[in-house]
Write a structure and sequence with these properties.
Layout (H helix, E strand, L loop, with lengths): L11 E6 L6 H6 L4 E5 L9 H13 L8 E5 L8 H8 L6 E4 L5 H17 L8 E5 L2 H5 L1 H5 L5 E6 L1 H5 L9 H17 L3 E4 L8 H13 L4 E4 L5 H7 L4 H19 L5 E3 L2 E3 L1 H16 L22
Parallel strand pairs: 1-2, 1-8, 2-3, 3-4, 4-5, 5-6, 6-7, 7-8
Antiparallel strand pairs: 9-10
Length: 313
């Protein structure tokens, strides 16, 4: 699955501390594709119960999410908070659970079993998917097994602070970041899942955030975590197809339709040789652009292959 089930693509995921209920309405009214209500790192130990209660009240009420994906980052399995977190949040309005500090496929299965038991007890017919964090050396080594730990896993999310800081790895080391990103992206891709990029802590450096987001997008990441509302627009702008990509993809889709009709498997578009992998990627770009409202209609490109109105600017 390439995105949160039944929801929009998650280009931007804004973290909101569960202990700050005064921020909930503003976040839900903002431009982020997804809101992560955080019960873990953003909440000190003495306020865990309060945060859990406030997030639970939000999810039990008439949430006006505006099409956003609603995520809760729970506390890790061994902490003693995990079961209470699930008890407070599991219900029909919760779209995803973000599972931190996972180190094995067995961890994912334990979380899935606990979640399934609550869903059965509460009469929920839709399984709540898991967005699983890769943020320890063991998790990085086990990333493929974690990604394939069950149908409930919908994606992997990279966490560089927890991974790098204890080891003294420089967060500005582009080679180190690239190596980890590539490993996570390939593990997610092997399981047919999306990968989501890490948070960027320097709120005062929007250019740095944008550089990181661009690098992640070039590796096929689907979106990026945001820790401040100012980062949301940057993520939304980066993790969308560009006008040039959409225009090329529309031409490929049109050419592929014609080639298939006459039994041709490879053909040239914009001077490039196109065959099945490129055609599938083009179709995915057009589908995403359509969901985001960047093209008026992707179903019937015109004779020039530009779509009924081409990319919207």
């Amino acid at each position: 699955m390439s995105e949160a089930p039944g929801r929009h693509p998650m280009r931007s995921k804004l973290f909101v501390p569960g202990s700050r209920p005064e921020l909930f309405a503003k976040a839900l009214a903002g431009e982020a594709d997804a809101i992560t209500l955080d019960l873990e790192d953003a909440v000190e130990a003495g306020r865990k119960a309060f945060a859990r209660e406030e997030v639970g009240k939000l999810l039990q009420g008439p949430v006006a999410a505006g099409g956003k994906t609603l995520i809760v980052r729970v506390n890790a399995l061994p902490t003693g908070h995990f079961a209470a977190d699930l008890d407070a949040i599991v219900g029909p309005r919760l779209d995803l659970i973000n599972l931190p500090m996972v180190e094995s496929a067995a961890d994912v299965r334990r979380a899935s079993d606990a979640l399934a038991a609550l869903e059965r007890a509460r009469g929920l017919s839709r399984p709540i998917p898991l967005l699983v964090n890769i943020e320890t050396p063991i998790a990085l080594r086990q990333a493929s097994a974690i990604a394939g730990a069950g149908s409930r896993v919908m994606g992997l999310q990279l966490g560089l602070a927890d991974l790098f800081e204890p080891l003294g790895i420089d967060r500005a080391n582009a080679d180190a970041v690239h190596h980890v990103r590539m490993s996570v992206r390939l593990a997610a891709g092997e399981a047919g899942l999306s990968a989501y990029d890490t948070a960027f802590a320097d709120i005062a450096d929007p250019a740095g955030f944008e550089r990181e987001a661009e690098a992640a997008r070039r590796l096929g990441f689907a979106g990026k975590s945001c820790i401040h509302p100012s980062q949301v627009a940057l993520a939304n702008a980066v993790f969308r197809p560009t006008d040039a990509e959409i225009a090329h993809a529309l031409r490929v889709v049109a050419a592929e339709r014609k080639a298939r009709a006459v039994g041709i498997g490879a053909y040239v578009v914009d001077g490039r040789m196109i065959d099945a992998p490129f055609a599938r990627r083009a179709a995915a770009i057009v589908a995403e652009a359509t969901r985001l409202g960047l093209v008026a209609s992707a179903a019937e490109p015109d004779e020039a292959g530009t779509g009924s109105s081409g990319p919207r600017r």
